[in-house]
Write a structure and sequence with these properties.
mainly beta; 21-stranded mixed sheet; 21 strands; 279 residues; disordered C terminus; globular; 61% strand; single chain
């Protein structure tokens, strides 16, 4: 009889969970994933939302406990999908995802809720996976991500900090800034403004891919690693212990690096072959 009562209670809870819509219009689906037995069950929440963004809009993603993947396309619509998983509904409620949007700004931020001392000490936090599809013509700012960050081709600047995982940026233009990264970095640059690229406090190897014909000045200080290049027009001017000065081509916008625990490699962006069989 006691088992039947427990089963009935679980069925009622599952029925109540269902699908809910918040006042902001985002689609949130909460359901329980069965594991190997009752103790292995998980709770999952899904968020789906779309936004219209003007060219040159700023997109911020911060405070995510998991992988962030950002795809880009020739569109004016941003599409967001967030999957959150936890061991229980109580654990899932420890953190929330806040979303603020306008035509020129989009902010997606994970934040912790107020919980008691015992819950903070012994409880577990949910894991999040963010997939964002953006227009190419945006500026991107990301910070506080506990997982890998994969970014597509951005026709704008990028600012990335506080990442515990690898960082891969398919393309940036204008300027790029990376600091406080615990993982390898790969970034391709279409063009640089006067401020150039700034790398600081990186615990990992860095590969900077320059577009064909791009010129740059390289200055590295406080490195526990080397600066190497695959470029034929790379000229090493000075090399001391932990310090490097060099230029690519005729020089130009700076690529500055400070406090790097790893190597920096310079290469060219791979040129995509044109389809010869296209009619």
């Amino acid at each position: 009889m006691k088992r039947l009562i427990i089963v009935a209670v679980l069925i009622i809870i599952a029925a109540i969970a269902g699908i809910v819509r918040s006042h902001g219009g985002e689609f949130v689906h909460v359901n329980e994933l069965s594991g190997s037995g009752q103790e292995g069950a998980e709770v999952r929440e899904e968020i789906r939302k779309s936004f219209e963004l003007a060219p040159g809009a700023t997109v911020r993603v911060a405070g995510i406990n998991g992988v962030v993947r950002i795809e880009t396309a020739d569109t004016t619509t941003a599409e967001l999908y967030v999957e959150r998983t936890a061991k229980s509904r109580e654990s899932l409620s420890r953190r929330k995802i806040s979303i603020d949007s306008s035509a020129t700004n989009l902010e997606i931020k994970g934040k912790s809720e107020n919980v008691g001392f015992i819950a903070r000490l012994f409880g577990s936090s949910p894991h999040e996976r963010v997939t964002l599809r953006l227009p190419r013509q945006v500026s991107l700012i990301t910070g506080g991500v506990n997982g890998d960050l994969i970014v597509g081709e951005i026709d704008g600047s990028v600012e990335i900090h506080g990442i515990n995982g690898k960082v891969d940026v398919g393309q940036a233009s204008g300027s790029a800034e990376f600091h406080g990264i615990n993982g390898n970095i790969t970034v391709a640059l279409k063009g640089l403004e006067h401020s150039g690229v700034r790398l600081k406090g990186i615990n990992g190897n860095i590969e900077v891919r320059l577009a064909e014909g791009m010129n740059a000045e390289i200055e590295a200080r406080g490195m526990n690693g080397r600066v190497v290049s695959d470029l034929p027009d790379f000229v090493l001017e000075e090399e001391k212990h932990g310090s490097y000065s060099a230029h690519v081509g005729t020089g130009g916008s700076p690529i500055s690096a400070h406090g790097i625990n790893g190597n920096i490699r310079l290469s060219r962006v791979a040129v995509q072959a044109q389809a010869k069989n296209t009619p």
